[in-house]
Amino acid sequence: MNRSFFLTFTIALVAAVGVYQPSWAKTPVSNDSMTAFEDQLKNLTKAPGKPGESQEADWRTYELQAEESIKAGKYAEAVEQCSKAIASNSEDLHAYRLRAVAYLRLGEKEKAKDDQIKLLQLQEQIAAKNCKEEIAKYTAAINANPKNAKAYADRAAAYMNLNQYDQAVQDSSKAISLDGKNKYAYFTRMAAYTALHDNARAQSDRQTFQSLDRGDKVRLSNSAVIDYSRIIESNPNDVNALLNRARAYVELGQFTSARKDCDALIKLNADSTEVREMRSRCQKEIRRHSAKEEKARK
Fold first, then answer.
1. Which CATH number, 3.40.50.1370, 3.40.50.20, 3.30.70.2570, 1.25.40.10, labels domain 1-185?
2. Sequence-ordered alpha helix ranges (H) in 179-198
3. If one looks up domain 213-297 in CATH, what number appears?
4. What is the pLDDT of residues 90-113, one digit of tens each?
5. Which sign does the torsion angle of CA 234, 236, 239, 242 carry?
6. 42, 88, 218, 284: least CB-packed within 10 angstroms?
């Protein structure tokens, strides 16, 4: 399961405190959104579907022809070529992207909007298909080892992305019973409870997740300080080690130590915007802590 995708999705879900709906169902397509959509195409990576092998050469060829036609300003030809690609491969996402641009350049905004909506629908259908495949994979792992907490947590995340909240709660709870420190299971269950409007349980899981997450960050930062300190002992002028140790000190709230590493970097002429901003933050935190201590003494 792609953790970054799932975390982004569930954070949005928790913030909304409501049931997830596809973006294409919630947001009408405007002319402005189509312009933004067209701009984004320049940076998109192709994500074609999976047709039969016998058709693959045809739809890929039509895609390439459509790209060249758009570059040459032959938008009507691009529309025709994209339509042929889609006829050969109904899951050709890139062909829908290209045809939307071609329609937009031809001034056929409604057709461009229709292709954008179809593209978003198709993306969600493919994502759902992938989730179902992942569920089958994790189910096999669970059958092989019923005490596999990670497999339960990953299957819960897949259920969550299919809006199957009860199953997500069930698998997350099983993962937690097997491994009480699995923060991802708590996060998934928190999102599922939120979608089910069980806010009290969602809040409890949120607190547990945040506690476990802080603990992980502290452990990682402590380990980083130890590792980079060893490097610095061997080579006090190792810029990367000093920078990374300073970052770790900041994560741990050890601002005096972080400031010392920033000063060392500046002396080595290795200062950067990040180093100066980090040092400035350390200065502020040190002053704030000193003022707090002074107030407590009074």
1. 1.25.40.10
2. 183-195
3. 1.25.40.10
4. 888 899 999 999 999 999 999 999
5. positive
6. 42
